[in-house]
Amino acid sequence: MSVQIIVGAQWGDEGKGKIVDHLSENVDIVARYQGGANAGHTVVIPSKNGKNEQEFVLHLIPSGIFHRHVTCVIGNGVVLDPVALMAEIEQLHRIGIRTEGRLLISHHAHLIMPYHKMLDSVREKGDQKIGTTGRGIGPAYIDKYMRTGIRVVDLLDRDVLCKKLKRNLEQNNELLSKMYNSQELDVDSIISEYQEFDKKVDEYVTDTSAYLNEAIRKKKKILAEGAQGALLDVDHGTYPFVTSSSPTSGGACTGLGIPPTTVDSIIGVVKAYSTRVGNGPFPTELNDETGNRLREFGGEYGATTGRPRRCGWLDLVSLRYSCHVNGIEKIAITKLDVLDNFSEIKVCIGYKRNGKQLTQFPTDVQTLEAVQPIYRFFAGWEAPTSGVRKYRDLPTNARKYIEAVTRVLDTKVWMVSVGARRDQTLIVR
Ligand code: IMP
Predict the structure, then answer these.
(1) Interhelix angle for 316-326 vs 396-409, to 10°?
(2) How do residues 349-373 score in pLDDT, each as one tens digit?
(3) Most buried of 27, 55, 255, 426 (most Cβ within 10 A)?
(4) What is the mean pLDDT of each run of 10 residues along the chain (429 residues)?
(5) Nearest residue (CA) to ligand 1, atom 9
(6) All structural domains of the chain with their residue ranges
(7) Is the CB–ligand 1 distance for residue 46 below 6 Å?
């Protein structure tokens, strides 16, 4: 068995990029299994001269790309935006990171088409606004499940591509032309654009499921990188305020075409507090000065959209649920340093509704919107942690905080991150 899965345990933006980058040192392959360019995985790498840091935001390409020995896979569960992919490849080339021979794209990944992005914003004008990233993710997955989607493999055959595109445009043009001042989408120009893309990506496209299964047989080490977070999972998240794919660990097997029996371990990435972008219930949200401080200290602005993230205290009710749904055995706690300046830190240990305590995490939004968090108070450590390099050197109150969290979650803490840089990483033995 050789597969490790990294999942976001909250609503995304937990800092998975840094954790995957760290783990990539000791793996052969990093594979993204779902989502699309809605994700923003930030990795801070030393510059060529080793003196400065460079921040790099990846949307599609797995965060292992910065390690030259790693092969990166974009699996069949991902929805692929050609424009975003090419921009990312070019950006990597500009900083001297090679993608040729190191990046593989599933021929079964579905393509984001221009009308998907337009439909995403049309739907967001309706009365059930999700607060999507506007990257066409939902509409692309709708087509996938309607069985009208266009896959990477379809680029190979112009006739198939034309036929599918014409049908999809006929279905969508009426709605789109109403919303976009009668400006109809043109089949020929879309075909040319996508065939141009085909020429550029051709060398990367392959049967990635076959590749991964062969790698597993050869005992290669594989890291499956999830995007977003468990509470945004289309099945297990706070539906309908979710993304359209399965960020939970189960999604890794379907999104990569590998058997569950090959999975060794599942690591949950947990931010030391909570954030959420977009709409939907968020029991521990702080619409006050404390929330603003978390946002400012944590730089909590969307890596993809720049939107300010909603901020609040850590929520152990939803996290316990997340650990169960994902099978998380160990966690990486990120952004601990953001809490350095708080004299008091709260953690939600239960919910109350109509005077009664709830024992389970309710995923129906009506209940979740009505619950009141029950908090446990922790004394802050009020000391900088970003320079700490050993877990035992963390302030006592910081260790108390972490240990209380892991006790409630019944997991082990494996790593604590105290800053965006690679060296700001404490491994807990
Ligand atoms: P979509 O994935 O763009 O359809 O957006 C659906 C919901 O998921 C919205 O609330 C988005 O803000 C949220 N979302 C999508 N991608 C991310 C992410 O990478 N981090 C955090 N939230 C996300």
Answers:
(1) 50
(2) 999 999 999 989 998 999 999 999 9
(3) 255
(4) 93 96 97 96 83 89 96 98 96 96 98 93 82 96 96 93 91 76 77 92 97 98 98 98 98 98 98 97 98 98 92 98 97 98 98 94 95 98 98 98 97 97 95
(5) 132
(6) 3-105+207-427, 110-203
(7) no
Which residues, 6+ apart, have CB-to-CB distance to 35 below 8 Å?
78, 79, 137, 226, 227, 228, 243, 245, 247
| pTM above threshold 0.90 | yes
- 110 belongs to the catalytic site: no
CA of 196 to the centre of ligand 1 (A): 29
59 belongs to the catalytic site: no
Specify the CATH architecture of the domain 3-105+207-427.
Alpha-Beta Complex (3.90)
CATH fold label, 110-203: Adenylosuccinate Synthetase, subunit A; domain 2 (1.10.300)
- The atom of ligand 1 lying closest to the CA of 39 is 19
Provide the pLDDT for residue 96. 94
C-beta of residue 43 within 8 angstroms of C-beta of residue 30? no
Separation of alpha carbons 307 and 225, rounded Å:
24
CB 363 within 8 A of CB 281: no
